[in-house]
Automatic annotation (TrEMBL):
<dbReference type="Pfam" id="PF00583">
    <property type="entry name" value="Acetyltransf_1"/>
</dbReference>
<dbReference type="GO" id="GO:0016747">
    <property type="term" value="F:acyltransferase activity, transferring groups other than amino-acyl groups"/>
</dbReference>
<feature type="domain" description="N-acetyltransferase">
    <location>
        <begin position="1"/>
        <end position="137"/>
    </location>
</feature>
<dbReference type="InterPro" id="IPR000182">
    <property type="entry name" value="GNAT_dom"/>
</dbReference>
<dbReference type="InterPro" id="IPR016181">
    <property type="entry name" value="Acyl_CoA_acyltransferase"/>
</dbReference>
<protein>
    <submittedName>
        <fullName>GCN5 family acetyltransferase</fullName>
    </submittedName>
</protein>
<keyword id="KW-0808">Transferase</keyword>
């Protein structure tokens, strides 16, 4: 597995991965309005690293660097439980002394993953998508 900084050549695959992963993960939300172009606006201004297995884009992490905030960590459904999320998280931990993120309270698999990586729940809040936890490392 390689972890590389974002390159424009990755854009089509990342758009597909982002759309497919959100639809698979957020089963409690109405995802009918999600579009491929959501990726572009949702990661604007963020530092992005991409996990590559063979010739496949297997996942990505995007970080809003002014706050060391993990805005997105997605793994392609075909590569779940293959260490992709762990490798991306290891990179983030190595580059940033502190990290924080929001995780939807309904997303139990993600909450379990983040807690296994050492994140702790700091607070609970709600936004237009529903209830979430703020986690920090």
């Amino acid at each position: 597995m390689l972890i590389e900084p974002y390159q424009d050549a990755f854009l089509p695959a990342l758009r597909n991965l982002y759309l497919k992963s959100r639809k698979a993960s957020f089963i409690w939300l109405d995802t009918a309005g999600y579009e491929l172009s959501d990726f572009d606006s949702d990661v604007e201004g963020e530092q992005i690293w991409v996990a590559i297995i063979g010739e496949d884009i297997a996942g990505f992490i995007s970080i809003w660097e002014p706050e060391n905030f993990i805005h997105h960590l997605y793994v392609s459904p075909e590569h779940i439980r293959k260490g992709v999320g762990c490798h991306l998280m290891q990179l983030a931990k190595a580059r940033y002394s502190t990290l924080s993120l929001k995780c939807m309270s309904h997303n139990e698999p993600a909450l379990q993953f983040y807690q296994s990586q050492g994140f702790t729940r700091q607070s609970k809040a709600e936004d237009s998508l529903g209830e979430y936890y703020l986690l920090t490392l």
